[in-house]
Hints:
Number of helices: 14
Bound molecules: 4-amino-1,4-dioxobutan-2-aminium adenosine-5'-monophosphate
Distance between the termini: 56 Å
Order of helices and strands: HHHEEEEEHHEEEHEEHHHEHHEEEHHEH
Low-confidence stretches: 8-34
Mean pLDDT: 89
Radius of gyration: 27 Å
Amino acid sequence: MAAPLTNLWKSRFATINPLLRICKGMGNSYRCYSFAKQSIARMLEKSLIQDNVKVKGWVRALRGHRDVIFLHVSDGSCVKPLQVVADPSLCGSDVTYGCCVSVEGRLVESSHPGQMVEVAAHRLQVLGPCDPVEFPFKARKKHSADYIRTYPHLRPRTNTFSSLLRIRSQATMAFHKYFQENGFCQIHTPILTSSDCEGAGEVFCVEPANSQLTQPVEGDREANHFFKCPTYLNVSGQLHLEVMSGGLSRVYTFGPTFRAENSRGRHHLCEFYMIEAELVFTDTLEDIMQVMEEMVRTTTQTVMESAQEDVHYYLQNTGAEKQRETVEAMATRQFKRITYTEAISLLHANNTFQFKVQWGADLQKEHERWLTQHLGDVPVFVTDFPAQLKPFYTKLNPDNKTVGAVDLLVPGVGELIGGSLREDNYDTLHSRLEDAGEQDMYDWYLDLRKYGSAPHGGFGLGFERYLQHLLGTGNIRDVIPFPRSPGTCKL
Length: 491
Ligand code: 4AD
């Protein structure tokens, strides 16, 4: 006879209960898994002293003496390597810098001040040899970021890039944590879309490689498209978030964004990650700026705690130690606020720029950099831009010349966040779309203003620019796992 459901549940629960107890009281949930129990991060916590352990990882340093060999093994679970002490008889000639090994031994207290524990090996096996002559990264050599970047498939074998990846992962969690703790609902906005949200024409078009999948109909241009309309990779999830905010109040998304910008600049990618939020019942730009400021501040504090060792290592190894002050400013100091018009006056008073900027023109990188420096090396909100500089959805100010838009500029990087109040007046929005000849395409967007419209606004933060600013990284390609730029999409 089948066991009653309650008994079945009890026996299942009995099996998972000890696991649950292990999880509790251990800050990081990954420790629940037996694989992670053997991770170097766990072993370095010292609690396993005298245990027999099995370590698998890559040799990141190797020092040989006549009667003993020291290996630094890293499995990527933390910034510190685990020192393995082995008798030379255990190490064949294939134990080299860069190879992948499996080591069995005893975890003992280390007499070296650099580490608390080490493994006294009694078995060492090479899982994957690595020819140190051919391997592009050399032992004890500091490789430049430019050099490392030329090996995108091997970058994680370097300590600096693995640190960056762990920081990136922690920062991702920190942003989610901020939104989840502040009543925002995560929305998976689409990657395929028929709208060019920013209206800048920087879209990638999407059609199937197999042209037989589209069935052209004579006289019907739309039928030439797989989706029966021109379709693009999204340049922003904003419009889709606006849809959802009109029912959920506070929403956010964190995903890949695509721009066909013909720039190989240090702050531009064709594929980058954007964190976007949309909130209703906003009265002024200040409502949005407060969320932007709190999000950046809280997230930065969380990352500085959760990825402390990696951030320390990364800054030290990339020569960006003075970046700590910038991070301090981002995590603790109040951000400055000026209007676009005030910014132009300040720039005019300073006459040293190569490019002069007139009211109505976009600020150049050099202007943005100067403004943050001039205002005390803190993040600066620039608000109320001329209407012609911002997209159709931005709310017109009562002066009929400027719009309720805001850019957050940060030292070294320039624009980190772009945001605005959204035009919620049906007639104003309709006439703007009409002027652009796009009212038919955006009929659904106009509907949002027709049925229970609410004043709202939001913003988008470039995640890679955030990491650049946090870590003082000069080139945006060094903070993303697989950079895409014009001419670069190799793997
Ligand atoms: O200022 P942007 O274009 O704003 C929008 O897309 C709005 N629709 C967002 C919103 O309100 N929901 O882009 C937002 C941010 C920029 O401030 C910048 O940090 C980043 O995205 N960004 C880029 N990052 C890397 N490479 C590029 N090509 C970028 N373009 C913009």
